[in-house]
Amino acid sequence: MRRMQAEIETRRDNLRQAALQAREKPSVYGEDFDPSIYIKEGPTESGMTDLSPQLREVALLSGFDPEEKARSASFFQENDEVLYEKVAALYNGQVEVLSIERALEQYEWLWDYWWKTVAVDTDKFTAYTELHQKGGYFIRILPGAKVELPIQTCLLMSENEGSQRVHNIIIAEEGSSAQVITGCTTVPRIENGMHLGVSEFYLKKGADLTFTMVHNWAENFYVRPRTGALLEENASFVSNYILLKPVKSIQTNPRAILQGKGARARFNSIIHGRGDSVLDLGSVIELIGENTRGEAVSRAAAGDNSQVLMRGKLLARSNSAQARLECKGMLISEHARMQAIPELEVSAAPRADLTHEAAVGPISREAVEYVMARGLSEEEATSLIIQGFMKVGITGLPEILEKAVDEMAKSISEGGL
Amino acid sequence: MIILTLEKLSVKAQGELILDRVSLEIPPGETHILMGPNGSGKSTLLRAIMGLGGLRVVSGKIFFKGRDVTKLSVDERARLGMGIAMQSSPALPEVTLKGLAGVLAERFKHQWQPVAAELNCEYLLDRGLNDRFSGGESKRAELFQLMIQRPQLLLVDEPESGVDLVNIAVVGQALKKLLKPEKIKNREHSGLIITHTGHILNYLNADQGYVLINGKLVCEGNPRDLFEEISKHGFEGCLACAECKRR
After folding, report:
1. How many domains are there within chain B?
2. Cβ neighbour number for residue B205 with a 10 Å cutoff
């Protein structure tokens, strides 16, 4: 049944008004800044029809395979322009990948998912995303589809002092399963800019979705992702977040709402603080349905002058809910700073079971020496320990990211502690 | 060529003299046993030979196959062919036993899988190294690593401590296999092993024994005779024993 255009217009108008009201509202967490300085209206410098060799190289570093050999579908956006959206022939009828604009045009029902898991007036960054939104992807895994090969997306910035304001919606329909790898990255010459990204996930009954996000930004980049996931009965959501490059500042605190009974969510974060990066990274798992399960596991290494703050919040509203929070940080520079803030909250569910474990410390000298006694050099021993530290407890990491983390551990140990 | 030579080795830990002019020699293919009361400096001696941290050699020298290794780092010594199984190893929850075994197998060109089966370590492979291992698990895991590394000199600190009889047999057989192949000419490995209970002597035909008291090697002789004396008369009695060669 077609919906009245007027109804959509009214809703858009209401969202716009709420956004206008929130334009000056600072985020609860993280460093405040004025996003307006990065907003440029009019066409951006992109508009390529194919991926240049340089872009291919950059994309590869963030997990995007330009050859698309082992991918079921791809989406690529450079600055404000969607360069392409493609589904491999084998997966036609199982996956849909569209720019969000095209999807909203094609599916009026999609408006029911727009700003439902993230409030448009959360802060100035959600407000600016609504007011200046350009692009973003719509991914839909159709009912019952089992998509073995990953769906990949890349959000690339190639314009200095520019910004991205994307809004993504991912719907995993009933009984479907898939994994999505998203790379957010800049070309090497880019020095500063801003990325605002709203991502909304909807996992229907029994759906299974693994979402991996790799951030490779530039040293003077501000990044403010805003993410919400709504899980129905027996849905399972795994979110992997990897940050290995320096950035000006990132603040994000994605929220998974486990509405349906038996829903499960897991957040894995692997963070390497470098340069002068200011990182405020967390996750929230809200356990509402019966027998819901949550896990949030963070591993952070703070180097150089970085400041890393790891948050985590578990919120239980069901007696049979169980969840676990684990934040572990390793300081690898005398000038770095690290904080872990775990938070557990139980509301009207006295039998809910929430636990947390947080630890921040240096690499144990005794441990390094133990490995050295087996004939490994100090660098090799340190690298092995950091590699393990960053990955232990993190399950289901795609191979390309396993390699990226190994490389990171190697580079830390080569740089000396 | 002598595998290990200690020449009047004196070692301090936290400013305190722990080892006082210790000298000994281990020829190729021989296994020597070190005994002594608690706190006599046995573990410090093994750690000093291996070059582990927290210790300072104040005088004397350590030679491995004729080469002065006194100032070499622990990893350099390991690469030359020295290996240690510690009495209590640090927990490394971030490194799995399999992860380290894989690296060692590549480095030392040995397969780790058969060794894991032999030492009943298969179920420990995906666990963090020494992380909540029982006494027996810890000893087997140490030996598992040593058997991949196959060092020419094995320094083993109390392989039977905190281990039940079944595990002592597993550990003992593994050490026997490494140190004492049936044919003498095939003995490629030498060992210096600390024992408190003497159980390990049931598995090894040790060639020489020493008694270390207050940081000094006070006796040496047949390890079984020494152990028998100690069992009967304690370390005080050992000091008075006429059969051992007083140093």
Report:
1. 1
2. 12
Residue of A nearest to B53 (CA): A369
Percent of chain A with pLDDT over 70: 93
CB-CB: which of B75, B94, B100 is closest to A377? B75
| Of A273, A275, A334, residue with least CA distance to A309 | A273
Return the number of other C-beta atoms located less than 10 Å from residue B132's C-beta. Answer: 10
- The Cα of A299 is separated from the nearest Cα of chain B by a number of Å equal to 11
Domain at B205, CATH number: 3.40.50.300
Give the predicted TM-score (pTM) of the model.
Answer: 0.80
Which one of B53, B128, B145 has the shortest CB-CB distance to A365? B53
Residue A266 β-bridge partners: A238, A295
Tally Cβ neighbours within 10 Å of residue B28. Answer: 15
- Chain A positions touching B73 (Cβ under 8 A) are 372, 378
How many Å lie between the alpha carbon of B54 and the closest alpha carbon of chain A?
Answer: 10
Distance CA A294, CA B151 (A): 46
* DSSP-derived pairing of the beta strands B190-194 and B208-213: unpaired
**Chain A residue with the nearest C-alpha to that of B98:** A388
Q: How many residues does chain A have?
A: 417
Residue boundaries of the structural domains of chain A: 5-362, 363-417
Q: Indicate the residue type of B223.
A: P
Which is it for strands B216-221 and B208-213: parallel, antiparallel or unpaired?
antiparallel
The pLDDT tens digits of the residues spanning B73-116 come to 999 999 999 999 998 889 998 899 999 999 999 988 888 899 99
Q: Is the dihedral of CA B154, B158, B163, B165 positive or negative?
A: positive
Q: Give the DSSP per-residue string, A132-152.
A: H----EEEEEPTT-B--SPEE
pLDDT in tens, A31-82: 999 999 898 766 555 544 456 777 777 777 677 877 777 788 888 888 888 8
